[in-house]
UniProtKB/TrEMBL annotation:
<comment type="similarity">
    <text>Belongs to the ROK (NagC/XylR) family.</text>
</comment>
<dbReference type="InterPro" id="IPR036390">
    <property type="entry name" value="WH_DNA-bd_sf"/>
</dbReference>
<dbReference type="Pfam" id="PF13551">
    <property type="entry name" value="HTH_29"/>
</dbReference>
<dbReference type="GO" id="GO:0003700">
    <property type="term" value="F:DNA-binding transcription factor activity"/>
</dbReference>
<dbReference type="InterPro" id="IPR000835">
    <property type="entry name" value="HTH_MarR-typ"/>
</dbReference>
<dbReference type="InterPro" id="IPR009057">
    <property type="entry name" value="Homeodomain-like_sf"/>
</dbReference>
<dbReference type="GO" id="GO:0016301">
    <property type="term" value="F:kinase activity"/>
</dbReference>
<dbReference type="InterPro" id="IPR043129">
    <property type="entry name" value="ATPase_NBD"/>
</dbReference>
<protein>
    <submittedName>
        <fullName>Sugar kinase</fullName>
    </submittedName>
</protein>
<dbReference type="InterPro" id="IPR036388">
    <property type="entry name" value="WH-like_DNA-bd_sf"/>
</dbReference>
<keyword id="KW-0808">Transferase</keyword>
<dbReference type="InterPro" id="IPR000600">
    <property type="entry name" value="ROK"/>
</dbReference>
<feature type="domain" description="HTH marR-type">
    <location>
        <begin position="349"/>
        <end position="390"/>
    </location>
</feature>
<keyword id="KW-0418">Kinase</keyword>
<dbReference type="Pfam" id="PF12802">
    <property type="entry name" value="MarR_2"/>
</dbReference>
<dbReference type="Pfam" id="PF00480">
    <property type="entry name" value="ROK"/>
</dbReference>
Length: 708
């Protein structure tokens, strides 16, 4: 039994944190008569660890539990860097020993940090950020950062309720985190130099604009609980506390063994790991704001505020009056497909139109028993319908099946710089209800989003109650790119400044209680072409969309190719590159090649200084044909489909002839194939129908990874 003074020291250490707490607990439990195995299980350490510290205590007493001095520079462990290492590692490489070897520290330090941040196990649970004072349990998001020479403030938003677990194997983007870290380091260096050159003469009014920053965060995020984390305060830290108290925002301080840069990286990594909406774009936007501060030499300040967070069940705004669409109901009726083979059968039936079970088995290579079982299940659930039996001279009569058109519906909304279009589409691609109207001239984002939501509600009401509620799968929204489809944010549409950086999906979720998918307009049009075209579009193809701009959608290996950020298909710039057209900054020009609406009749174009007159339709068609030629040579495709609102009337034949000549006369492999150039099978509402079809495509198309 330890002496009285030693017991007091051991109890004090055991009540604290860190390695000393474990070592003191080992000695105290051993003094109570527990065996090494019992101590190991109770404290979650190895038996070897228990034996080592018992022997050290027996030989050297209380002082033997302290770390021994080592030669060379003392090792300083930044626990925030350990957190980043955990979150950026693959799920199979998150054990403490593997991380210790990679980070060059003790595995016990890794294990202790994981316990403090609640990051134990390969599947990460709800983290617990060890701030002072402690945060209440909540799902935390990074929503704001303020940086000036006087202070650096990080704002976190906490939302109560059961959080959704992260996707298995999800980890933070290490490249984006490094970009933020470098930008933050540079910004902190500039701020420190300014403080050293001009010492602060007391607290500046409103803490260098921190008050206005906090007001902006509260306006954008009115519902969640907000928490200020003081990363740095040169002087007058109490002023930050007063600012927070005046706005009902709690103030916290970072752990002692972290720095402002490493702590910011750790919190961003936690956010990105837990929330799919916290995409790489969010990190890069923050890095750009920090880089702007550095480039200005500290003359500006960083006041980055994130867009509104995605809506959850406990934060959804009050729903509109009854009868205005899915917002009035209790949610969407999801169609749960039990297996990959069910999707294969549905796809086969969809492509064929009407087909027997034997033909399904022959096309899919599934057994007759499997096809019969799946077909019977789909008929019972109302997805398939049996037709009148076909009599045959051999064997029993066969009963062909087809999709039941009314088994599922989806709403598609097309946002164009000039007009908004909404359609309600059934499973066959037939338009049940439609409505279009000019887009409002009001530049306020809230007004535009309100018009979009009201248009969708109008179409659902027009369809009539009882015609679509059963099997309503969701809403697809097609918008000009670029789009952050992960968070549902429209970024920089070239001709729609009102929607710049607007979190469209989040805002629409406040009006509709159903799944919502945001897709680029040209990609949505390609999906609609695939869905409506059935067997004629079952091969790979490029869809050329002629709208307010020229875009393309690619179907490769049987599925839509979105690219790394779901923004593949920026075809208009390819046209400018093939023509050698660049603006003074070196960027490919986007007009007039990218705007079919600006083409003139037969008058030839002229160059006046740096200004060009409008292209004729044949000139534009030849320019676009050169771009399509590059796509065909690059991807070796055999089908080009052309559609869109400007592919109409007499100009359609001009485009077809010019593009067909380009893709068959000039490609390198022209002797091996004949590229077909065809009109779209879709209507003038091609993009709106395609937007609705993205919901069908993500639900029914067979794929091993099912991402909307």
């Amino acid at each position: 039994m330890p002496p009285a003074d030693g017991r007091e020291t051991l109890r004090r250490w055991a009540e604290g944190g860190g390695p000393l707490a474990i070592r003191a607990s080992i000695v105290l439990l051993a003094a109570q008569g527990l065996s090494p195995s019992d101590i190991s299980r109770q404290l979650g350490v190895s038996r070897q660890t228990v034996t080592t510290w018992r022997q050290r205590y027996a030989a050297e007493g209380v002082e033997g539990l302290r770390d021994r001095a080592r030669a060379g520079r003392p090792v300083e462990i930044d626990e925030a860097e350990i957190v980043v290492g955990i979150l950026t590692a693959p799920a199979d490489d998150r054990s403490s020993r593997l991380l210790a070897r990679r980070l060059g520290c003790s595995h016990t330090v890794i294990a202790e940090t994981r316990r403090r941040w609640n990051l134990t196990g390969s599947h990460l649970g709800l983290p617990a950020i060890p701030l002072h004072p402690a945060l209440p349990p909540a799902d935390l998001w990074t929503v704001g950062l303020h940086l000036d020479p006087q202070c650096t403030l990080l704002v976190l938003a906490g939302r109560s309720g059961p959080p959704m677990p992260p996707a298995p194997g999800r980890r933070a983007d290490s490249y984006a985190l490094s970009t933020v870290s470098s930008a933050m380091t540079d910004a902190v260096t500039v701020a420190a130099q300014l403080v050293a050159e001009v010492p602060a003469q007391g607290p500046a009014p409103e803490r260098g604009g921190a008050a206005g920053f906090l007001d902006s965060v509260r306006r954008v995020h009115p519902h969640p609980d907000l928490h200020i984390v003081v990363l740095r305060a040169a002087s007058g830290a109490d002023d930050v506390t007063e600012l927070g108290r005046a706005r009902g925002i709690s103030v916290h301080h970072i752990p002692r063994h972290t720095t402002e840069v490493s702590f910011l990286r750790a919190v961003l990594a936690l956010d990105a790991t837990r929330h799919p909406e916290s995409s790489t774009r969010v990190l890069l936007d923050l890095a750009a704001a920090l880089a702007g501060y550095t480039e200005s030499g500290g003359l500006s300040r960083v006041q980055w505020v994130r867009e509104p967070l995605p809506t959850t069940a406990d934060t959804r705004l009050p729903t509109p009056p009854p009868g205005t669409g899915p917002a009035a109901g209790g949610g969407a009726n999801h169609i749960d497909l039990g297996s990959f083979n069910e999707c294969v059968v549905i796809e086969t039936v969809r492509l064929a139109g009407t087909v027997t079970r034997g033909e399904i088995a022959e096309r899919t290579r599934l057994t007759q028993q499997s096809v019969s079982r799946i077909a019977r299940s789909l008929i019972q659930r109302g997805l398939l319908v049996e037709e009148r039996p076909r009599h045959s001279s051999i064997g029993k009569p066969s009963s062909p099946v087809r999709l039941r058109d009314g088994a599922a519906h989806a709403l598609g909304i097309h946002i164009d710089p000039n007009v908004l279009t909404a359609v309600l589409v059934d499973l066959s691609g037939r338009i049940v209800a439609r409505h279009a109207e000019p887009i409002t001239a009001d530049p306020r984002p809230g007004v535009v989003v309100g018009q979009i939501a009201a248009l969708g509600e109008t179409v659902l009401a027009q369809a009539g109650p009882g015609r679509w509620e059963d099997g309503f799968l969701g809403i697809g929204v097609a918008t000009p790119g670029p789009v952050d489809t992960v968070s549902g944010t429209v970024l920089d549409p070239p001709l729609m400044s009102a929607l710049r950086d607007v979190p469209l999906r989040t805002l629409l979720e406040r009006r509709f209680s159903c799944p919502i998918v945001i897709e680029k307009d040209c990609s949505a049009a390609a999906v609609g072409e695939r869905w409506i075209g059935r067997e004629s579009r079952a091969c790979d193809f490029v869809y050329l969309y002629l709208g307010t701009g020229v875009g393309s959608g690619l179907f490769l290996n049987g599925d839509l190719y979105r690219g790394l950020t779901a923004n593949a298909g920026e075809f208009g710039q390819l046209c400018a590159v093939t023509l050698g057209r660049f603006d003074p900054d070196g960027r490919p020009e986007i007009l007039p090649e990218c705007n079919p609406g600006s083409y003139s009749g037969q008058e030839p174009s002229r160059v006046v200084g740096r200004q060009r007159t409008r292209l004729t339709v044949p000139q534009a068609a030849r320019a676009i044909g050169k771009g399509v030629l590059s796509v065909i040579d690059l991807l070796d495709l055999g089908l080009v489909v052309i559609g869109g609102p400007f592919f109409t009337g007499d100009v359609a034949d001009v485009y077809l002839n010019e593009i067909e000549h380009a893709v068959n006369a000039y490609p390198t492999a022209r002797r091996l194939r004949r590229v077909r150039v065809e009109r779209s099978v879709n209507s003038s509402e091609a993009v709106a129908v395609g937007a609705a079809s993205t919901i069908f495509h993500s639900t029914f198309t067979p794929r091993l990874r099912r991402n909307p």
